[in-house]
């Protein structure tokens, strides 16, 4: 028995030695340190793509002062076909997005949609329906705003929508409820101080915005990346996939509030007067919305909303004064 145990132990030892020799004689791994630490650039957000050069188009018809709107009705019980239909439905359908911090965004804790534009829409709903919460939100990209109004899938759009003559050919606007200015957002110490410095740089903009048109017009040497919303621009800037973002200073302030390494720079590229978008032909609703905007200018509500959501921009400049075309 003792001899058998010794034989077994010798066999085990021999097998182990052979395996060890085999392991030692195996060719070394061909994976190098460089391959193990290779950097893979993060993917771009969905629907991101380089902007193509715009085709030359005839200038839009001159509409005079694009910010002039219909005079508001002084009747709190004002009626009309559009207003009556909304009241019969029992809710105001509002188009906006959830990627514009400070103006319209989803609170990460409560899940509710909040912001300056949301508060303005709720004031309209409160006057129209007697309840500020009777609002149904439809989430829209910037490029979808005009189509949603033309198809009347929303009653109004409250989404940092700049009033222009070109847009007024397709939709109607309220009076101006906020005055913004297009500027540039960059990383601190980037060396970019204005639009002249964007030549040869990568700039993120959102499709369907006046910001895109202005960069193409005033700095054609910039390389543009278009995305679906401004939150995507923040991501690609943080990942160093672009050098700058350009849009309204109000939107840029909302992005900068999320990252202490970002700063808004440069002089004003273009004034951006925001209006509530309304389908063409719905003049009764235009007058009603303008009535709400007139009320909140005069009773202090506008300043209260500004101080709640936009104090990061500085002290309240006061509401923009309305201009009427009738």
Q: Which keywords apply here?
A:
single chain; 326 residues; alpha/beta; D-Maltodextrin-Binding Protein, domain 2; 2 domains; six-stranded mixed sheet; three-stranded parallel sheet; 12 strands; disordered N terminus
SSE layout and pairing:
Layout: H1 2-25, H2 33-36, E1 49-50, H3 81-89, E2 92-96, E3 99-100, E4 104-106, E5 113-114, H4 116-129, E6 135-139, H5 145-150, E7 156-157, H6 165-168, E8 171-187, E9 202-206, H7 210-218, E10 223-227, H8 230-238, E11 244-248, H9 249-256, E12 262-279, H10 283-298, H11 301-309
Helix pairs in contact: 4-10
Provide structural commentary:
This protein is globular. 34% of the residues lie in helices and 22% in strands. Helix 4 crosses helix 10. It is of the alpha/beta class and 326 residues long. The protein folds into two domains: 62-179 and 273-313, Periplasmic binding protein-like II (D-Maltodextrin-Binding Protein, domain 2, 3-Layer(aba) Sandwich); 182-270, Periplasmic binding protein-like II (D-Maltodextrin-Binding Protein, domain 2).
- Our measurement of the CA-to-CA distance between the termini, rounded to an integer number of angstroms, reads 116 Å
Structural domain tally: 2
Shape: globular
Helix content: 25-40%
């Amino acid at each position: 028995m003792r001899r058998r145990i010794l034989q077994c132990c010798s066999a085990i030892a021999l097998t182990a030695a052979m395996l060890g020799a085999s392991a030692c004689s195996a060719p070394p791994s061909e994976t190098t340190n460089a391959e193990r630490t290779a950097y893979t650039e993060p993917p771009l957000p969905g629907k991101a793509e380089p902007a193509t050069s715009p085709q030359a188009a005839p200038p839009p018809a001159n509409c005079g002062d694009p910010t002039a709107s219909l005079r508001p009705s002084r009747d709190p019980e004002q009626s009309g076909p559009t207003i009556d239909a909304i009241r019969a439905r029992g809710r105001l359908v509002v188009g906006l997005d959830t990627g514009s911090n400070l103006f319209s965004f989803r609170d990460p804790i409560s899940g509710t949609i909040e912001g300056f534009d949301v508060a303005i829409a709720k004031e309209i709903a409160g006057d129209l329906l007697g309840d500020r919460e009777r609002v149904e939100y439809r989430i829209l990209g910037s490029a979808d705003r005009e189509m949603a109004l033309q198809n009347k899938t929303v009653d109004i759009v409250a989404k940092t929508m700049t009033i222009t003559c070109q847009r007024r050919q397709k939709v109607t606007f309220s009076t101006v409820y906020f005055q913004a200015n297009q500027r540039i957002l960059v990383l601190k110490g980037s060396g970019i101080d204005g639009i002249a410095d964007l030549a040869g740089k990568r700039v993120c903009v959102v499709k369907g915005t006046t910001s895109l048109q202005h960069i193409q017009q005033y700095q054609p040497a910039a390389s543009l990346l278009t995305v679906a919303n401004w939150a995507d621009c923040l991501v690609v800037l943080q990942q160093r996939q672009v050098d700058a973002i350009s849009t309204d200073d109000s939107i840029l302030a909302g992005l900068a509030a999320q990252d202490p390494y970002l700063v808004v720079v440069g002089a004003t590229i273009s004034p951006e007067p925001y209006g509530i978008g309304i389908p063409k032909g719905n003049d009764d609703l235009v007058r009603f919305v303008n009535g709400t905007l007139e009320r909140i200018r005069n009773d202090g509500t506008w300043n209260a909303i500004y101080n709640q959501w936009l104090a990061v921009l500085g002290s309240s400049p006061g509401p923009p004064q309305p201009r009427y075309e009738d």
